[in-house]
Design a protein that fits this description.
By secondary structure, the chain is of the alpha/beta class. The protein contains three helices and eight strands, in the order E-H-E-H-E-E-H-E-E-E-E.
């Protein structure tokens, strides 16, 4: 699926949010600057979250509780130690379950083998302009491009 600009990315994320349920896990893959956090802003918009959505690159996670469903946004970019990444994931997953929250993970490569049921969003740069989004739903083996 081709997305041309920031507002289209946010709208795609907002529409995608309607497919999510409490305790859904979303893995976001793509290069730096590809729109992962903007997509999360769209998910938050779709969940009616009123807080400003920012990248948790340095904080590692942000929790948003003001919407229809709570959202936990995890960013593992800075973590190189798989043990630390897995410990953080386990802690945030437990909190997501307790609070019936959606868990979105940027840079999930170190924890992906631990997760059984998840949505996967792959973002890539389009040849001349914009982004391509590939959305995979393992429950139904569906891919949206």
């Amino acid at each position: 699926m081709f997305v041309g600009n920031l507002s289209e990315t946010i709208n795609l994320g907002s529409s995608f949010a309607q497919r999510l349920n409490p305790e859904s896990i979303v893995l976001l893959l793509g290069p730096i600057g590809s729109g992962k956090t903007s997509f999360v802003k769209g998910i938050a918009k779709g969940l009616c979250i009123s807080e400003d959505i920012t990248s948790p690159t340095f904080a590692l996670s942000h929790h948003y509780n003001s919407g229809k469903i709570p959202l936990i946004h995890l960013d593992l970019y800075r973590l190189k130690d798989s043990f630390i990444a897995k410990e953080l994931y386990i802690s945030e997953e437990e909190e997501a379950i307790q609070n019936h929250a959606i868990l979105v993970i940027e840079w999930p490569e170190l924890v992906k083998p631990m997760i059984d049921n998840f949505w996967k969003i792959e973002i890539s740069y389009a040849k001349d302009f914009g982004r391509n989004y590939k959305i995979w739903d393992p429950k139904n083996s569906l891919t949206f491009e």
